[in-house]
Prior knowledge:
Layout: E1 5-15, E2 18-27, E3 30-35, E4 44-47, E5 52-55, E6 57-62, H1 75-84, E7 87-92, H2 103-116, E8 120-126, H3 132-135, E9 145-149, H4 162-171, E10 176-179, H5 183-197, H6 206-209, H7 212-229, E11 233-235, H8 241-244, E12 258-263, H9 264-268, H10 274-277, H11 290-301, E13 307-309, H12 317-320, H13 337-346, H14 352-367, E14 383-387, E15 392-393, E16 412-413, E17 416-422, E18 425-429, E19 432-433
Parallel strand pairs: 1-4, 1-5, 6-7, 7-8, 8-9, 9-10, 10-11, 11-12, 12-13
Antiparallel strand pairs: 1-2, 2-3, 5-14, 14-17, 15-16, 17-18, 18-19
Amino acid sequence: xxxxxxxxxxxxxxxxxxxxxxxxxxxxxxxxxxxxxxxxxxxxxxxxxxxxxxxxxxxxxxxxxxxxxxxxxxxxxxxxxxxxxxxxxxxxxxxxxxxxxxxxxxxxxxxxxxxxxxxxxxxxxxxxxxxxxxxxxxxxxxxxxxxxxxxxxxxxxxxxxxxxxxxxxxxxxxxxxxxxxxxxxxxxxxxxxxxxxxxxxxxxxxxxxxxxxxxxxxxxxxxxxxxxxxxxxxxxxxxxxxxxxxxxxxxxxxxxxxxxxxxxxxxxxxxxxxxxxxxxxxxxxxxxxxxxxxxxxxxxxxxxxxxxxxxxxxxxxxxxxxxxxxxxxxxxxxxxxxxxxxxxxxxxxxxxxxxxxxxxxxxxxxxxxxxxxxxxxxxxxxxxxxxxxxxxxxxxxxxxxxxxxxxxxxxxxxxxxxxxxxxxxxxxxxxxxxxxxxxxxxxxxx
Length: 446
């Protein structure tokens, strides 16, 4: 390990609810010193005058499509886009091909990431109706957690046997993350609309097919089960106002047994956008009403919702341009999530301190990530520098995803990520990549 030094000068340091002017000295992989002014003649200097320096974003939910679906994306392409977006650590989902439902398949993914990822990584282990034995072998110090699809899954990953579910909830110490949509409700709604329109259902009906009722039914059941069994439950991508009332802000995050996440697209888009964006904003769960979006913002700001993530899930444009029933759900987001949230800050919706809490501090607390998510002496130097006054427009030429499109194309952002450091190494600087392999496997303090 080299002991090279990097000194970030004149930064607006955003950490733990405050913004202070100062310098940050990095030595090797770690933050060595934080002070109002530091002299280190031998260090490489980065001048952050008038810019924010924040901890690297920890994205707790991405789909990077490797192995098996690499025509859409790879760990290399998407982690590179993530670095450009200020994301320095990701947790990737198990619904690849083959699915990550055995220890062997999980280790295969870690092996790929160790060679190709631009940023720090961990993976969720996938639960099925018949792999409890494998779940019990997972080491919770080295793996982010367990992912259960209680609706809307591919292959055999739908866990729809109530006995199995209770068994998993009762027997694992892993943090259980869930996708909550009630499959029976969705099937019934889909059949009704197919009868009316055939396969080419107008996209505006997507949030009515994958309805508030489908979401609430599933998430309320999962929460009931978690309370009954004492399991540690994290509900992914809330999309309805109604669901926000299932969560509490009465206790500190570190003591919560039941937590929630919201994704950038549910905070940004509403059903009013389907007309312009079509299947490009087809996600599961669906983007819902303006009112739902407003209630998600309220719950985020009053701490019923704990984390902002992306659910980055790329598909090719060819796949997305199919008729409703054949167009897959999901879209790419890691490159634009942080600047989109800075845009919300410019609109007066969220403070920079709160944004850092929800994208950096809270994922670290919630997943007990070791020595990341904060700007602290002795912590890994995962840092992002943001210029909040350097406007640019998203277009095909600057989109970095392998799928080469973004739901934000045509959007003008006021803020830009200028530097991303991973474990003390500058991996991204002013639209250029330094091809250093600095990424590490995340470890968890459990």
